[in-house]
Amino acid sequence: MNMTIDATMGGAILTIDQAAAYLSIPKATLYTWRTRRTGFGPPAVKLGGCLRYRRSDLDAWVADHVESFDDLPGGREDGAAGGVSLSRASRPR
């Protein structure tokens, strides 16, 4: 029986392996976020001593971490900061 990851993730509760695959990150990264960066990663649920993730929590966590270009100097999406180039200075020729 050859099942894809999507077929095994039909439920709303995911194992750590499934959650890591869903986020396209190593399982060790989820463990690191839980132990070394408390509060950074998506919230987990302990069920019978096993770590589980709700798909809705993963989706919400991803949505909260979408990169914003408002953080650039000057708040401009094109990368210009008040007419100052953000690229590396070129060498004289």
UniProtKB/TrEMBL annotation:
Pfam families: HTH_17 (PF12728). Keywords: DNA-binding. Residues 70-93 are annotated as: Disordered. The keyword Nucleotide-binding does not apply. GO terms for molecular function: DNA binding. It comes from the Bacteria. Residues 70-79 have a biased composition (Basic and acidic residues). Residues 14-64 form the Helix-turn-helix domain. This is DNA-binding protein. It comes from Cryobacterium shii.
